[in-house]
Amino acid sequence: MSLRSQVRQVVLQLLYQDDLNPEVAPTAVAQFLRKSLNRKVAAMDFALSLLDGVREHREELDQVLSGKADNWSVERMAVVDRNILRLGAYEILYTKTPGRVVINEAIELAKQFGAQQSPAFVNGILDRLLREHQ
Question: What pLDDT, in 10s, does the model give residues 48-60?
Fold first, then answer.
């Protein structure tokens, strides 16, 4: 697994935690990042940029995702799926990571952490977002 894939996996775990327990102390988040990423500075910087970006733009990301998911509100989505989608949407909209790389990474996260239908669900929504964003 590439370092960036590992970072996305750690960020997904933190976003999941944010969703279920938003009052986690920042020191606990920093400690989790240090331990999970073996104190690799570049990995920690990338992780913090993704985590902070999704947190900062969460409301906007949720609106965008709701508009791309036919008959689904973000609140109705499985917690894992919606956080994979938030992460993917953030990368598509706010980073220079190629869209197809973002989608492939999101699908891999969905395969690993989501339900059986999660990869197709994530792929469909992020693909629609990418096509409209380009």
Answer: 999 999 999 999 9
Determine contact, residues 91/102, Cβ cutoff 8 Å: yes
| Residue (of 93, 92, 91) closest to 7 by Cα position | 91
- Judge whether 92 and 129 are in contact, CB under 8 Å: yes
Please name the residue that has the structure tokens 């690799």. 40
Query: How far is the C-alpha of 114 from the C-alpha of 64, rounded, in Å?
Result: 21
b/e for 11-24, b at 16 or more Cβ within 10 A? bbebbbebeeeeee
How would residue 125 be classed by pLDDT, with cut points 50, 70 and 90?
very high
Quick: pLDDT tens for 99-113: 999 999 999 999 999
Q: Which domains are present in the chain?
A: 3-133 (1.10.940.10)
Three-state DSSP state, 98: coil
